């Protein structure tokens, strides 16, 4: 019951804070902040507490596959958003996301290879990422948009952690970085500010994946040596430093 309470309080609080950060510091910084392990971190934590440390560590390999697909989602959404409204853009991007997962999962890559591949893919994606044609339009907001974002993200976390025992560590890990927060950020940016805002937000998120992926990769080793709070604390600090450096470079 305590874990359930944590799920329905922690996740919506995080989503609300990330949304406010986007409004306060803009789409690029908001994307960077959104790429931090606000959702994947708690999901991994719940795996560890509910399914055991071995399950949680094993799920990290699947998460790397999910991150590769997430990069494909960000690239495709950014490119397609220039030509379509948010719904067809989202659906087509989900198709590309799914195809990426099926292909990478078929390859059965090891953790270190997957991590290296994610880093290389991020760098390639940033090299060829769509460039906004103009500044994002004036911000518009839907009624109750923060509440909508909080509800969607919370339901997703409840679903993934609830089905973990059925899905197993590999597919639980693959679905952990499912672009739920990314979709929410992209859709609302696209709908309310236009394609350019979505591109800026998603590019910021891809930049942040350098730190996000490192956070998860480190857990596969830190969790064998340290307690969960210490492992998460060390990796989160590394994640933050990488994000700060990456934001200055790109």
From TrEMBL:
<keyword id="KW-0812">Transmembrane</keyword>
<keyword id="KW-0472">Membrane</keyword>
<feature type="transmembrane region" description="Helical">
    <location>
        <begin position="150"/>
        <end position="168"/>
    </location>
</feature>
<feature type="transmembrane region" description="Helical">
    <location>
        <begin position="6"/>
        <end position="22"/>
    </location>
</feature>
<feature type="transmembrane region" description="Helical">
    <location>
        <begin position="174"/>
        <end position="192"/>
    </location>
</feature>
<feature type="transmembrane region" description="Helical">
    <location>
        <begin position="29"/>
        <end position="49"/>
    </location>
</feature>
<feature type="transmembrane region" description="Helical">
    <location>
        <begin position="204"/>
        <end position="222"/>
    </location>
</feature>
<keyword id="KW-1133">Transmembrane helix</keyword>
<feature type="transmembrane region" description="Helical">
    <location>
        <begin position="113"/>
        <end position="129"/>
    </location>
</feature>
<protein>
    <submittedName>
        <fullName>Uncharacterized protein</fullName>
    </submittedName>
</protein>
<feature type="transmembrane region" description="Helical">
    <location>
        <begin position="87"/>
        <end position="107"/>
    </location>
</feature>
<feature type="transmembrane region" description="Helical">
    <location>
        <begin position="228"/>
        <end position="246"/>
    </location>
</feature>
<feature type="transmembrane region" description="Helical">
    <location>
        <begin position="55"/>
        <end position="75"/>
    </location>
</feature>
